Amino acid sequence: MKKQKMIMGIVSLLTISALIACSSDDSNPHEGMDMDVENEESTEMDHSDMDHSSSGEVPEGLETAELPTYKVGSKVLIKDGHMAGMEGAEATIVGAYDTIAYAISYTPTTGGERVENHKWIIHEEIVDAGEEPLEPGTEVTTNASHMAGMEGAAVEIDSAEETTVYMIDFKLTTNGEEVKNHKWVTESELAPFE
């Protein structure tokens, strides 16, 4: 068991080192924000190019949740984050919306390696999505701009989850950086703040 953990730790460190070494964007204000190596899914996603804060604008047609578990203004705990510094952070709910959240894979329009299992874009951020949820394996175009090279990219749907998504404000636990209007976290990634 100890040997297996040590091997996993070494593999995780090598992966992070390779990702940092391959990074060519010296102007990235989030440099040094490594992936959360304890979360297996996080090893599939490098969010160093993620636009953590946003203007707070929401896509056309996105409906405010009528009875969200977490109301706007309430404090929550992020129990499952998409990048280092999210997990365990205290957050404030800025918006709550009923929609379909998708995990996607895509090759950035700016070039570079394929991004696998990115969480999350929402139904309203997919060009000509229609009314019905999209099935895993469906290829579509997104107008989401959470990460460099995402907007206009051809994406493949990895999974779909009908849920309430939240826009949140929080401070990264890694460096205290304040993140405003972060899009998106799902209800299952949050817990009540006690």
Write a concise keyword list for the protein shown above:
mainly beta, disordered N terminus, SH3 type barrels, eight-stranded antiparallel β-sheet, 194 residues
Structure description:
- With 194 residues, this protein is mainly beta.
- The chain is built from one helix and eight strands.
- It has one helix at 2-22; strands at 63-64, 75-78, 90-106, 115-122, 139-141, 154-171, 178-186, 190-192.
- Strands 1, 2, 3, 4, 5, 6, 7 and 8 form an eight-stranded antiparallel β-sheet that branches.
- A hairpin with a 6-residue loop joins strand 6 (154-171) and strand 7.
Order of helices and strands: HEEEEEEEE
Annotated CATH homologous superfamily: Domain of unknown function DUF1541
Q: Using only CA atoms, what is the Rg?
A: 17 Å
CATH architecture: Roll
Total helices: the number is 1
Global geometry: globular
Overall pLDDT metric: 80
How big a fraction of the residues is strand? Answer: 25-35%
Task: Walk me through the topology.
Layout lengths: L1 H21 L40 E2 L10 E4 L11 E17 L8 E8 L16 E3 L12 E18 L6 E9 L3 E3 L2
Antiparallel strand pairs: 1-3, 2-3, 2-8, 3-4, 3-6, 5-6, 6-7
